[in-house]
Amino acid sequence: MTGWSRAVRTWWHDVPGWLSGIVYVAGAVLLALVVHRVLIWAARRATRGRPDSSAALFVERIRKPMRWLMIVVALAAVQPALDLDRTTATLWARAAALIVPGLLGWAAIVGAGTVIDAMIRHADITVADNLRARRRRTRLGILQRIIVSVILLVTICAMLMTIPAVRTLGVTLVASAGLAGLAVGAAAQPALKNLIAGFQMIFTEPIRIDDVVIIDGEWGRIEEIRLTYVVVKIWDERRLVVPVSKFLEQSFQNWTRQSSALLGSVFWYVDPAADVPRLREALGRIVTASPRWDGRFWNLQVTDTKPDGSIELRGLMTAKDASTAFDLRCDVREGLLAYIAADMPQALFRRRAEVALAPAGPSGPAPTTLG
Fold first, then answer.
1. Contacts of residue 32, Cβ cutoff 8 Å, sequence gap at least 6
2. What whole-number distance in Å separates Cα of residue 319 and Cα of residue 228?
3. What is the pLDDT of residues 77-133, one digit of tens each?
4. Is the pTM of this model over 0.70?
5. Which residues touch 22 (CB under 8 Å, ≥6 apart)?
6. Residue 187's Cα: distance from chain center in Å?
7. Which of 315, 313, 311 has the alpha carbon at shortest distance from 273?
8. Rounded distance, CA 371 to CA 369, Å?
9. Rounded CA gap, 240 and 275, in Å?
């Protein structure tokens, strides 16, 4: 056995350096892949009974970053055993020092995103009373973007500080931080303004995910909240991109600030001779028969008279949310117009005028008044 070992060592000593280097690298990569596979197998086995759990989600997402991280660490560990010249060894070490922080940052972003996504799963916004869920989802979404931004900043700084030239440049920039800060601040003022507004959004909550808003004359729902801008999904499938600062500095309508339930209104203009009590009864039948009415309130009132002689009727009705209220208003408007046309045509507005005819005599007939 000793002689065999001595023979192997002698043979290995005679192997060219480039070939032994390939063997070392291949062995290190293979070992890292095997260890990675065993660890992932063990983690999957531990979470097999809960495939939808946060731990199972974390295992699946962290798998790729951990694979590359273990390969890079294995290559960095095997570097002293390689027959490398001084320049190549220095490049190898600097490459490892540059790549490892990047992979660690990737793993940290994946881990933070997994935790946030697991918390978002518990905020179901499909239920009827989803105010608390929308508030939680909005905060978590903004918090996730802040965490990712901080991790990216730290990762990039750590990667750059491994380069000696950049490290020296960083010391020089710190020495002149006053002038540089003023210049950067002046150039990036709009971006910084919206970034700070994004942080304010977490605490003030003027809007939340799935809120119904009217801004710049457009009706839509909050689809996405970023650190610097908000995406509003318009009713006709368009997207309105609005700077975050606009929601903090300018007025806008939020129809779901406290609750999604709304009071909708419909207007009709009818003849003064219309039987308003009958119209009120007809409206009540139409509203109460609609599945879109939430059962809270409805009424019909004469709210105005117009210079042309017509009267304004306003119908009020409640619905569970904005889109349902819009459909309910359309149904009620159409239903009452159909009732007027079929059962109360005298309610249709008519214009009246008086025409005086010439007096009777040689020149014409006696005067007549038309109404």
1. 67, 70, 71, 73, 74
2. 34
3. 777 666 666 777 777 777 777 788 888 888 888 888 888 877 777 666 665 666 677
4. no
5. none
6. 28
7. 311
8. 7
9. 45
